[in-house]
UniProtKB/TrEMBL annotation:
Keyword Transcription: yes
Biological source species: Streptomyces andamanensis
SUPFAM superfamilies on file: Periplasmic binding protein-like II (SSF53850), Winged helix' DNA-binding domain (SSF46785)
Family: Belongs to the LysR transcriptional regulatory family.
InterPro entries membership: LysR_HTH_N, LysR_subst-bd, WH-like_DNA-bd_sf, WH_DNA-bd_sf
Domain HTH lysR-type: 1-58
Transcription regulation is among the record's keywords: yes
Coiled-coil zones: none
UniProt keyword terms in alphabetical order: DNA-binding, Transcription, Transcription regulation
Pfam families attached to this UniProt entry: HTH_1, LysR_substrate
This protein's name: LysR family transcriptional regulator
Amino acid sequence: MEMRELRYFVAVAEELHFGRAAERLGIAQPALSRALAGLEGRLGVLLLERSSRRVGLTDAGAVLLTEARAILAAAETAERRTREAAERRPRIALAVKAGTAGELLAKVLDAYGADPGACPVDLLLCEAHEQRELLCAGRADVALLHLPFDAVTGLDTEALLTEGQVAVLPGDHMLAGRTAVRQAEVTAAPGPPPARWPAPDGSCPEGPGVAVRNLTQLFQLIALGRATVVLPASAAVDLRRDLVAVPVTDAPPVTTVLAWLPESRSRPVADLVRVATSF
């Protein structure tokens, strides 16, 4: 497999739409389709389920998505560290779960960028719970984690934001017009059960709901009437127009933290933490 093919596959797997993936990659859609068909042919497996109305991941495709993200992240890290060694210029690799804490992240990066001693910050966009893996593997210097969902045992942390949660529903859902709901109402409402997220060890808990690994997949399934979800309010700031977010009054609060390895002696990481916790 070529790095180019892995980048193409990840784009399609995240967008679940060949047109959007091609636009994101800056290539023609037919070329993208041919490249992925060639990859499937050489592997001898079907990675994507295609129809005239949707694109979905097969089980084999879900495995390759996880592996491809790790490979691309490792390649980016190798490139970054090689250039740092040549330029003697430090950088910070920040791991973030894709689609979360967007407004908070923008504020942190803007504030840090204005600091006189700021270093360039490379963002590593991850699936659920991959931030910790990148930290422990040395591919990230610092990560944004979300309590109580992510495990922080053995890490140093600083809290940045505590927020409530919302139910993300199709626009025509019976609860879509409400100003607030309770968790029991979301669970008891007619329609699909809540989606299932991976546990910190990567396994997906048993249950009737559809298993998902990223917000792009999840929001498309919700729009199709195949899932519902309760998640932090900040993850639903820029929802697609056919979805609504309704506050869930009794959902536990979610705290976003910056996390890093206790043995870290990085001055840029210390500066980033100092700036991020100052507002």
